[in-house]
Amino acid sequence: RFDLAFVIIWLYPLFLLAFLYDLMAGDRESGTLRLALSQGISPAGWLCRRALARSLPVLGLALVATLLAGSAGYELRLAVALAVVLIYGLFWATLAVAINAVSTSAASAASTLGAAWVALVLVAPTLINLAAESLYPTPSRPEPRVTCSRTPPARSCSAPFGPSIVANPRSNPKLLQRCLLGWPSFRARVPTPIAAATSPPTARSRFCN
Questions:
Q1: Which position has the higher pLDDT, 201 or 79?
Q2: Sequence ranges of the domains in the chain
Q3: For burial by CB atoms within 10 Å, which of 24, 57, 86, 189 has the most?
Q4: How far apart are CA 208 and CA 158, in angstroms?
Q5: Considering only CA atoms, which of 59, 58, 48, 60 is closest in space to residue 23?
């Protein structure tokens, strides 16, 4: 998959620097610059014309690639992207021209521009990311809290006796004394004399003693 962002951020400056690293330093070494200046050409005008002639193809290709990557309905975003790509390219072209103006050789200009690319494209974003992580750390996911209860759950009256006692409470009246007859399922099945004899009048709980 073609990644336009990678090309624009990483490779686009490298292509510009490859075209512009010996813009003036190489001519100074070969003597071409002295010959051109002897004809009455100003150094600034000569440097700007050469920089424009070398950087225009790279700038044009970057703008065309950005334009082709855009989609219909996002004209405003596409215009902003084109402006950002153009400003980004002009920044690197201006940096190359400034370094060429003060460099004495093409090798020194190339090494200086390479160091600037490493510092601005590789080192600076990493340091900014580390600073942002230290100042505003990403919150970690909360660990689930598991609580254990040592108190066993209360058992209903039907749990220790099984379904037979619930279905036929007359079969074992003594076991019914352990449960309170306020529960509707027992009260509806137990006869009134047994309920009166086995159930205390104040007991209304639904759980076993």
A1: 79
A2: 4-135, 158-198
A3: 24
A4: 9
A5: 48
Calpha distance 209→206 (Å, rounded): 10
| Digit-coded pLDDT (tens) for 175-207 | 555 554 455 554 555 454 444 444 444 444 444
CA neighbor of 176 nearest in space, from 190, 192, 162: 190
Distance between CA atoms of residues 162 and 167, nearest Å: 9
pLDDT in tens, 42-66: 878 888 888 999 999 999 999 999 9
Count of positions (residues) in the chain: 209
Smallest Cα–Cα separation from 111: which of 208, 25, 192?
25
Q: Per-residue pLDDT for 16 more than 60?
A: yes
